[in-house]
User: What shape does this take?
Amino acid sequence: MRPIKLSLPELAGNEKKYCNEAIESTWITPLGPFVDRFEKDLENWLPTGHVVALSSGTAAIHLALADAGVTKGDKVICQSMTFAASANPIVYLGADPVFVDSEYDTWNMSPELLKKAITQLSEKPKAIIVTDLYGMPAKHDGIRAIADEAGITVIEDSAEAIGSRYKGKHSGLQGDYGVLSFNGNKMITTSGGGALIVPSLKSAKHVLHLATQARESTTEYFHKEIGYNYRLSNISAAIGCAQLEDLDRRVKRRKAIHRLYTELLSDCKYIEVKQNPNCDFDSNFWLTTILLSEDSPLSPLQLCERLKELNIETRRLWRPMHTQPIYANTISFLDGTSEDLFARGLCLPSSTTLSDDEIKYVASEIKRLIEEID
Ligand SMILES: *Cc1c(COP(=O)(O)O)cnc(C)c1O
Assistant: This one.
């Protein structure tokens, strides 16, 4: 049996064709026809008005914060349970993160704790970064209402959630800004890349300006702002155009994998497969995740290690940012939810390349490992 991986890239079909076109046209550059086309394709797919293609999802978060006017000394609220790339760009700008805990329905930012944070902080935060963890949309209505009332910008980190919907609207479109990632392990890949969904043409122009070294003119090389080299390459965009053609099928496949795990693990009393809390939520199930009950004979770490011996890759949930050494002493609004989820959760292999038989094998091995101790 081949190794079973968490989330592998998969070819969609036209990657080589489009890359060859890009190479033959000599647009081997961080701009070009495929970059423009990829942005248009994303705008049509979502649909939305303004998308800027960038070199990574992290770059997209960085430029969303910059465009929202975040500067040194500002406070930015960020979901604690997320990948470090959600929070680090706050620090790149010299601003200070404030972490907010999760709630159990979605594992994302708790609207109640967000409200508490805004009420108790001595100054108004400049922005809120909310993640759609493992594809599950956050409680965006609640978060939007609180943010709108306080007049704070919302950045939706939907790096894992392209193809998910909340109340019928795509992830990436729930906040003022939406972040997409095309890293190798995500729903679609450009080998490395990202995109920022922005609220206006003005923002699109500013983000593009910042992403291309904030050069006022190419004849004078005049700079009024600090810029970055964050544009997506034309070759990467060519891969992205091909990958996007296959996105609908991939969303269906990830959901089918999730359904299969749900069915196969339903008779194990120690395991709860994470579900959409109700019909407002439509996760792409980028990764199927489980929670082990407190009386489970194996901890997530033990289960992960035993499965690794069988060449099955699983991973613990994102370690909450407020427990990270780099973010020690950061102001945080907590109620223990993310630490509990982290202690009990595990991500299962969810690559679209896995067959139903492989999913069945993973599920039966998980049950066997737990039940042989029980
Ligand atoms: C992958 C990821 C990012 C970063 O995207 P890159 O393209 O790898 O820079 C940010 N946030 C979350 C939640 C992610 O999963």
